[in-house]
Amino acid sequence: MDRQADIGLVGLGTMGAALSLNIAEKGFDIAVWNRKSDRPHEFRKQAGELGARIHPADTLEDLVASLSTPRAIILMIPSGDPVDDMIAKLRPLLDADDLIIDAGNANFHDTIRRTADSGGPFLGMGVSGGEEGARHGPSIMGGGKREHWDRVAPILEAISAKYEGAPCAAWMGESGAGHFVKTVHNGIEYADMQMIAETYGILRDGHGMSAPDIAPVFAGWNEGVLQSYLVEISAKVAAATDAATGGPLLEVIVDAAGQKGTGRWTVIEAQHLAAPVPAIEAAVVARNLSARREERATGESLFGAAPKPLPEGALEPALLEEALICGKIMCYAQGFTMIAAAARQFGWTLDLPAIARVWREGCIIRSAMLNDMADALAEDPDRNLLFAPFFAAHVKRTQHALREVVSMATAHGLAVPALSSGLAYFDQMRTARGTANMIQGQRDFFGLHGFARLDDGTTGQHGPWADAAANPDDTSGKQG
Ligand SMILES: NC(=O)C1=CN([C@@H]2O[C@H](COP(=O)(O)OP(=O)(O)OC[C@H]3O[C@@H](n4cnc5c(N)ncnc54)[C@H](OP(=O)(O)O)[C@@H]3O)[C@@H](O)[C@H]2O)C=CC1
Ligand SMILES: O=C(CO)[C@H](O)[C@H](O)COP(=O)(O)O
Q1: Ligand 1, atom 43: nearest CA belongs to which residue?
Q2: Quaternary form (predicted)?
């Protein structure tokens, strides 16, 4: 093949292969290289007609030689050392203005470092949608120099998902911004999945429903406000039959959730930013606890199983649906608040409505609600989504359901950590006079950290603790 390829790709795994076919299908020539060297030729053969646009490369030198200049090469490989190693191998083969694009799920701190140190143009790009999305239209979140994004934007916009014709691919901001946004996307994904799993647990253990009976409940929710990819696939997962046993597949899947790190990164970064994401945190904790199967079995044999069956008529699917709507709004409110905090911290010009728009199609968290979120954020990007009139109305209508689900589930030993953390977040965010005055009193007592006064606005004030310590019987709190 004499024609030069428009773009290169390293890593023909699940995502890289699907993305390459998508790129070829949209009329671009793509050169591909893989660590296992027989893979590119085999891949081209399997690509059928699209193979005409796929240039298999035996070596990295071949890959580089087959690209039109200035070159652009996508890395679709595991994050961490493999990315650093691949950059180190590629850079000496490239010209100064050739672009490397890391499209895996990288930690954005690594992306910032690589943009500064990798010796040439570098973009960090989040891609969401799993294999199906990568093949037919993912959501794409780019970060780095705008001019570098603009160079490859025609290809990326062509292969991305479209929402009413608008591409779900956008430049998010400077170095690290794309991978940061993808990381928070995944954090929200964790919380959304966990909340759905908790409602599944209530239906299974609280109501004694089988997976095939639960499937239509989720399918029904997918027709309403909760319409989303995750609810849709939950219905499909619940409906699936296991070929080996002939029974429901869900019932033979081990109850220990895997994770590759993006949820954890979201939580760690949220803590650094002081922008709490408790629903995401609860979801990460739940995955970690899910992995402790033996310990959980010990717990059950020691304490006995909780009294799970619910009373007749309690927590019906319609109520669970309302609770899930409320919980979901809490997750997204937390995620967007965190993104806004990061924009301030890192000096990124993150456009919150644009982020919501890019998530409307293609990605794993795509849902009907995201369009309304984009509108609400466009009205006022600095306002917590929870307070936007559209979502406040939803919350006013559904918060009682969330409260009833959390309290009834808790009373019956059904663990609902993400839903309950969503409720606790709501209750904290709707309480003008909280309880941290006690924390401040305690801090001042043991460490003289000082407190601010409500009445006159003065700060750095201290209580009469020295006197209280000297007179332990005196609890009057009065000085002197
Ligand atoms: N799967 C998904 O749903 C999504 C994944 N991602 C991200 O995309 C990236 C790729 O994921 P995915 O396609 O699922 O992974 P796979 O495991 O399916 O494929 C990994 C690919 O990377 C190559 N590879 C592995 N280690 C190295 C290395 N040290 N040097 C060079 N190449 C290497 C593999 O080559 P070989 O064939 O030789 O093993 C293979 O081509 C990851 O960062 C992942 O987090 C992002 C969004 C969704
Ligand atoms: O990025 C993704 C989806 O958006 C990947 O599927 C990712 O692997 C999901 O995270 P985890 O494996 O931790 O569940």
Answers
A1: 104
A2: Homodimer.
